[in-house]
Amino acid sequence: MPEQTTTTPAAHPAPPPSGARPARASGRRPSAAGARNSLARLGPWPWIGPSVVLILMVVVWPVVEMVITSTHKISGLGIDFGSDGIGRYRKLFDDARLGPVMAWTVVWTVLVVTFTMVVSLALAQLYNQKFPGRRFTRWALIIPWASSVIVTSIGFRWMLDEVAGVLNRAMLDLGLIHSAENWTGDAAHAKPWLILVAVFVSLPFTTYTLLAGLQTVPGEVYEAARVDGAGKWQTYWRVTLPLLRPSFLVALVINLINVFNSFPVIWGMTQGGPNTDTSTSTVFMYILGQTDVGEAAAMSVVNFAVVIVMVLLFLKVSRWNEES
Amino acid sequence: MNKRLWIATATAATAALALTACGGSSSGSGSSADGTTTIKFVAADYGSNGQNPSQAYWDGVVQAFEQANPKVKVDLQVINWNDISAKLATMVQNKQYPDVVEGPGYASFAQNGLLYGANDVLDASVQSDLVPALAKAGQQNGTAYGIPFVSSSRAFLINNALWQKAGLPMSGSQAVAPKTWAEVETDAKALKAAGVQVPLGLPLGSEEAQAESFMWEMNNGGGYTDAAGKWTVNAPANVATFQQLGKWVDAGLTEKDPGSVKRTDLYADFASGKVGMLNGMPTQLDDIKKNNLQVTWAALPTAQAGGTPQTLGVGDWIYGFKPGGHAAQIKAFLNFAFQKDNQVKFDEEYNLLPVTKSAITQVQTDVPALVPFLNALPAAQFVPVANPAWDTVNAQVKTQIGGALKDPQGVLDTLQKAAATAGQ
């Protein structure tokens, strides 16, 4: 990269990295060449600088603020009572609600990602076939992705409403239930619906990632499999899935992070309630913020640590992809 | 570390600082060279469904005020009720204090010395015009910090058409309202038998659960605090109240899961004729009129026969923040905002109750429908708004108390403990 920054058109085709040095002597006076040279001295920074500043400002700075906040005692109304050491973490880990919240977060992440991956594999396989109307159905799949997640969630919340919801009306009229249910009113009823909506909004991205992967599988390998007499399932397990591994892993890890961090589905449908019965750790953090900003920040730090682990996993997985 | 990296880091840091500084100064308020002072005013939005936003009301008031006081500019920000506490918390945490706030509670701010006393920011003549019960709720340790701006009280509300459909007694065009909880139960059963979807509305969801619980508790001799101000969240009377409410839920006399029912959603269901009875408030008057519903307003039913019906009073507060140092300008603005015409206009727009005696007289003649609520106001009970721990307790009660329908003792014990340790 440094070569590209020593920029007279007549520059030596391949100057050494320190190629800027000789020019410096003649650059004492503020001339155009001098300006170019001091620019050159900065190496790649003028080019990557803006993105570094951006990352510092929108990623690093908030993280630092978050960690500082988690060591302060700050009321729900924002009044800062000063440093509290690890007091907020202690309060968080003593909170009886934390255990069930973390357990549900794990169940939520695992179930949503599993269902999403399985259904997406099938959908991708379907969309990889030639059939009339394929273009239309491929477009249709984008809809849950194109519409805002919070809008989808609120739409579902009202379809499931006890008094005004269309689901109760339909089921009552069909004689499937005898009295209206509140489908988002308690954890047992709400959780399956939350998972369903989360899978619904995760399908488009995952399916398209897998579909792209399927399209890179060369036809010859299928031909070879056929010549070797492999059956349909055998071909799928031994040929398609292994070749799909790169896109499968990318989709898997991105989904893990997305679903773990997911806020709008749960907030739009149950606000994490009743109580904190349907809160994942991200929603719980928001609920904590209403009474204790410091404790909420401590929860964010814990969440952040989990995401970091997942990102490291992602990096490892992508290296594994490159190697194979 | 090499030189290039140093330069780059320094550049980045400088840029970051410069940008931060810009962000900080733009939202500040203060005096400019020509002698005008800008005060920052944050107000809650009372409009519903995007209708009649408070922005329009305050724009009018601010414009008239600025005309009368050319040396003062008001920087107005209207925030909806769901977000105002969080936004206010962010401002306070970042030390970008507003000068005047109209909306949520004042207690923690006052306790931490962030607020002007009412004497500094409101004329004595206006203060003496305030309804005493409300003015008293604005005091902390004997000093008034919170100034009531609007108020409201509650009454039991019945849908007459459903009442008749269930064959329940009428007296002329009005329903004969239940006086005791036993009668509530009998009436709810009759409504259920007649196919009413929600015989008794019980909005114990996170929107206003603290008010709904309090109304049932106070009519059973309970409440959040005792006379001395000590927390009594898990008092036997409150536990018994939730045991009774829980039985009604199990018997199918309410919604399936009142702990997830929002007040505004329930009011919408009432307006569409699906709810038999509930604890109502005057803001519903508009919807009732629009939907042409025949209704009966009555006193809240009591747990035992012969009890004196209690009702809930709610005040929204206006207060001045000290850090900006604009006491004189705030005083000028508040004196203006509390003028009778401005008060009356606001209250009639939103069917809320005035807080000054002079405005009450006016509203009584203008809006007869509000008279029962005005009459209930002087004896109404308030949640412990002056207690600085209330802000925290309030947030926890809102999300958790719905669980007390299933486990009264356990949930109320948890909340009592939270109240006792609030702020730690």
Task: Please report the two chains with the greatest interface, counting residues with C-beta closer than 8 angstroms to the partner's C-beta.
Answer: A-B, 41 and 46 residues
The CATH C-level name of the largest domain in chain B is Alpha Beta
Counted up, domains of chain B total 2
Q: What is the number of helical segments of chain B per DSSP (H or I, 4+ residues)?
A: 19
Overall structural domain count of chain A: 2
CATH superfamily of the largest domain in chain B: Periplasmic binding protein-like II
**Poorly predicted runs of 5 or more residues of chain A:** 1-28
Compute the number of helices of chain A: 14
> Largest sheet of chain B, if any?
5 strands, mixed
Classify the beta-strand content of chain B into a percent band: 5-15%
Helix content of chain B: 40-55%
Q: Report the average pLDDT across residues of chain B.
A: 88
Structural class of chain A: mainly alpha
Mean pLDDT of chain A: 84
CATH architecture of the largest domain in chain A: Orthogonal Bundle
Number of strands of chain A: 2
Signal peptide (chain B): 1-23
Keywords (chain B): Signal
Protein name (chain B): ABC transporter substrate-binding protein
Q: How does the SSE layout of this entry go?
A:
The complex is a heterodimer of chains A (324) and B (424).
Chain A (H helix, E strand, L loop, with lengths): L20 H5 L6 H10 L3 H26 L1 E3 L5 E4 L3 H8 L3 H30 L6 H13 L2 H11 L6 H8 L13 H29 L3 H9 L4 H30 L2 H6 L11 H8 L4 H31 L1
Antiparallel strand pairs in A: 1-2
Helix pairs in contact in A: 3-14, 4-14, 5-9, 5-11, 6-9, 9-11, 11-14, 13-14
Chain B lengths: L2 H24 L10 E9 L8 H15 L3 E9 H13 L6 E4 L3 H5 L6 H4 L2 H6 L2 H6 L1 E2 L2 E2 L2 E7 L1 E5 H6 L4 E2 L2 E2 L5 H13 L4 E3 L8 H10 L17 H15 L12 H9 L3 E6 L4 H6 L4 E4 L14 E8 L6 H11 L2 H11 L6 H10 L4 H6 L13 H11 L7 H13 L4
Parallel strand pairs in B: 1-2, 1-3, 10-11
Antiparallel strand pairs in B: 3-13, 4-5, 6-13, 7-11, 7-12, 8-9
